[in-house]
Amino acid sequence: MGEFGLIERIKSKLSLPHKDIIKGIGDDACVTDIQKGKALLSTTDTLIEGVHFDLRFTSAYNLGKKSLAVNISDIAAMGGVPRFFLISLGIPPKLSVEFIDEFTSGIFDVSHSCQTHIVGGDTSFSPDRFFINITILGEAFKGDVICRDNAHVADQIFVTGNLGDSALGLKILMDRNCTSKVEEIFKELIEKHLCPTPRVSEGKLIAKNRIATAMIDISDGLISDLEHICNQSKVGAKIWIENLPLSDAFQKYSLKFTDTPIDMSLCGGEDYELLFTVDRRKMDLLRKIMPILKTKVTHIGEIVEQKNGITVLHRNGQVYPVKRKGFDHFPITFKDQVSF
Amino acid sequence: MGEFGLIERIKSKLSLPHKDIIKGIGDDACVTDIQKGKALLSTTDTLIEGVHFDLRFTSAYNLGKKSLAVNISDIAAMGGVPRFFLISLGIPPKLSVEFIDEFTSGIFDVSHSCQTHIVGGDTSFSPDRFFINITILGEAFKGDVICRDNAHVADQIFVTGNLGDSALGLKILMDRNCTSKVEEIFKELIEKHLCPTPRVSEGKLIAKNRIATAMIDISDGLISDLEHICNQSKVGAKIWIENLPLSDAFQKYSLKFTDTPIDMSLCGGEDYELLFTVDRRKMDLLRKIMPILKTKVTHIGEIVEQKNGITVLHRNGQVYPVKRKGFDHFPITFKDQVSF
Asked: Mean pLDDT, to the nearest integer, of A297-311?
């Protein structure tokens, strides 16, 4: 099958008509409509084989899902709704048509469930590695956008879902060295690493109700991402260990794979949960909408003055010394990636 | 210098405040404003070292310029104005900070001259090759957008600038095998290959005056790009050889480097000129605005019925048999790249 055949497969699989797409893929550029009064959100991310993913650990389908999901997560973290995406693929000769088909199915399933449409693409021959670049465009009412730089002293800190599952899932994959050798009981954790769910409806509800003063998605780990909020808002934070939301699976199995599960939950990356700060006066409103949020929300700490930095505390007030080493999300070179 | 230092350099160099950028780079996503009544144009392109460029032939500065320019050219070909761009870089260890600085300067100079602003980025460690992905966002009034699918029989075919210079420039670079060995007299041709100028103001004027029925930028070569218009518009075309616009340098030197200069001008890629079709009734209007266009415009052919296909003719009506082989823009694997 020629390259053009492959492109036609990708295009026909991903491209669906939509009222806001005036001219879809197939011209010099796509032409789309942005709703009046809304701001355009944009962000881009690259995944490189051997740097951000390992084809021994992920199926093509899951890789497709995750590639789009992590980008959508950035839009969710602004309180926006993903609308359009552009995808560039560098395809090495070793990949089969079936691989690309499955990868495309993964992309399609996430784009479909998040109602996001393709508005541009590029496929190139890549001599050695598979790489994926996705740019995502979202929309939000201008007043609803939630940035990282507006947390204030005494704001309360919340997080959706659980922490550390993705890092534990990755650790299990690396220990077993092969997906097929992973025991059934760990599948849930592996899934959290391979197929994160972007918290779009949660982010949108938080934005619409103006509940959060600052928000970010957890890609680098709770502490690292909290640092982004603290640095940009010029504040500090304290986190209460006993409040950290840990899944049953994490509580049950983490000690089999790490001596420091607390650090894994604090510093493990790629949970793609939302971390946000709430003005005390909005706490009642948050409690009111909690039942309609698809994901649980946990109160884990409080914003303090910048001079106090970020501290992690036990219930008795004792400081927990965080060990950050060893929980970078993909272990080889994660520190070399910066999105801006 | 750490990776964060590098990012800060790139960010500080590229990021300028702009009234339509509500929130610039540094958050989960950028937040921008799109003007009322305008459509959003989007397209993405990847350049991979050894596939689309060769670091022996281009300086970092020129590579930066070209990376952004070829994307902007796609927006120009829709009759739009480039507004924002997102850039992802995969940076191998062999590249120096100075290289990235110069590359960024090239990007900046084009973004500045085309009034295009950065709204997202990602830098990753890349184990072997340098690669660049740029997504560009443009704007156009909805009624002004010019697609590829609206050429009609009897429309006249025009092209901006000259044809074949870029292909000849590349041929010279490859023959000499090193930029420093290229003689001064060929510099103009090399420049056309390494630093193409996107025809933004020309495209905008053509769009604003509703002169063109279809338009495309010439990236794959005149014949290939004309094929895109013909296939999508369901028409054929004839091109008059004697009318092909050739630069003085091309006329003077092309025979030193190729036995088939006509084929080079017909099939050589990367001229990034605008190819467009005009309804006969708009010819007077076109002639009227020609003097205010920054670039010359040449009448090179006519749209015919689809069943006649695309033919290239001598003045006496004799058909010229086009030889397409050997003029792919970057020789190794060009046929493997498809933008959609």
From this structure: 97
- Give the pair of three-digit tokens for residue A247: 């899944």
**Given this model, what pLDDT does residue A332 score?**
39
* Three-class secondary structure of residue B74 per DSSP: helix
Query: Sorting pLDDT into bands at 50, 70 and 90, what band is B327?
Result: low
Written as six digits, the tokens of A332 are 């080889």
Q: For residue range A43-76, what is the model confidence (pLDDT) as tens digits?
A: 999 999 998 899 988 999 999 999 999 999 999 9
| Å between A256 CA and nearest CA of chain B | 32
The residue in chain B having the minimum alpha-carbon distance to the alpha carbon of residue A77 is: B28
Looking at every residue in chain A, the average pLDDT score rounds to 90
| Domains of chain B, each with CATH number or no CATH | 3-144 (3.30.1330.10), 156-335 (3.90.650.10)
CB pairs under 8 A between A and B: 244
The helix/strand/coil state of A144 is helix
What are the pLDDT digits (tens) for B122-161?
988 898 899 999 999 999 998 899 999 999 999 999 999 9
> From the candidates A23, A27, A146, A227, which should be mutated to test the interface with B, based on the most B CB atoms within 10 A?
A27
Any residues with CB less than 8 A from the CB of A81 and at least 6 apart, and which?
A: A75, A115, A138, A139, A140, A200, A204
- The alpha-helical segments, DSSP class H, found in chain B are 3-14, 60-76, 97-113, 165-176, 187-194, 200-208, 222-233, 248-257, 261-267, 283-289
Query: Who among A10, A42, A51 is closest to B120 (CB)?
Result: A42
DSSP summary character for residue A76: H
A198 in Cβ contact with B29 (< 8 Å)? no
Which pLDDT score is estimated for A337? 63
CA distances from B29 to A42, A81, A146, B145, B163 (A): 5, 12, 10, 27, 40
Task: Name the DSSP class of B184.
Answer: G
pLDDT in tens, A147-181: 999 999 999 999 999 999 999 999 999 898 877 78
Give backbone dihedrals phi and psi of B299, rounded to 5 degrees, phi first: -85, 110
For the entire predicted model, the pTM comes to 0.91
A62, B4, B18, B146, B333 from A159: Cα distances, Å: 25, 27, 33, 47, 47
Contact B84 A42 (CB under 8 A): yes
State the first-to-last Cα distance of chain B, in angstroms, to the nearest integer.
38
Query: What ipTM did this prediction achieve?
Result: 0.90
- Nearest by CB: B50 against A50, A127, A216: A127
Strand partners, A149: none
